[in-house]
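Notes from the 1:1 (GR / supervisor)

We went over the backlog. Supervisor wanted to see one worked example end to end before approving the batch request, so GR pasted a single chain during the call. The sequence is below; no edits were made to it. Supervisor asked that the structure be written out right there so they could see what the output format looks like.
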Amino acid sequence: MALFRQLDEQVEHLLELFTKDDNWLIVINADPDALGSALALRRIMARRVNRTAIAQINEIKRPDNLSMIRYCRIPTQKLTPTLAVQFDKFALVDSQPHHNPEFKQFDFSVVIDHHPIAEDNLVEAEYVDIRPKYGSVCTMMTEYLYNMKIRPAKLLATALMYGIRCDTKTFERKFIDADMAAFKFLSKFADSKLMNRISRSEFHLDWMRYISRAFYNLRRVGKGLFSYCGNVENPDILVIVADFFTRVHDVPWVVVSGTSEDKLVCILRGDGQRRDMGTMAQKLMNGLGSAGGHKQAARAEVPIEELDGVDPEIFMLKRIGQGRKATIRKV
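Structure output shown during the call:
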């Protein structure tokens, strides 16, 4: 019995796109799943194209992401117009073109993702592989490597394994058998000590003031929790706070928001039983900015100027409480 599904047709179609004359840029919104997937796609492209590079649209400041890049030697760089013009082919992993306005400038030839498919934003590219049931794109890329008989080197295997671990939250979030199979397969090649070193690098000391502020501003909204952290130096802080609050007993959903670089950023987390966080994010923003995600995890970003002068915290309280003050109370 094969360890993974056969991808003969998909592999053939994908490899047909790679020629020795092409210069490929792999574009990501950097997180562990995107970083590991990009590194795997770069490995697949090796010796098949003229040049490959990885570029992220976001500023990477989260300590575990920085550690992953350092220890797994992932050659990603900040996306700039000067960098982009050096390439004639573009690939997108762990995202879809409508997920962020910065993606819209590119005509992607390859899109590989696991987020839900939006019927009003169907992806068009020469090669599209979107599997919403998968817990991680790193699982999908592991399947590609296996089908191509490419044995992942230690650092690549570690990056892929860490990406699966993060996106499934060590299999606490939704996953399928393929995610578990990929994790087990990669464990034969990965460096477990290195992965633990990466995962322990989660917090900057100066982030503690934002965590303190999140506790002070914590509110109960129906059965869920909401906290506004004010202006933060990095939206990754909001992710860490939201993930922490999911550990509170009998809380089915959490929304943590703040502002960063003239944007209102909202991180949503759920227990996967009741509300769909991706749908909730879209309803909260109601067409403003960008919003979406999975049943258990989602994100929304709205330019401050689109709030029409309304204070971001007040804006969120009105949206989450649906205008009913009685549903909101201090913790």
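Supervisor's comment: The CA atoms of residues 144 and 261 lie 37 Å apart.
Batch request approved.
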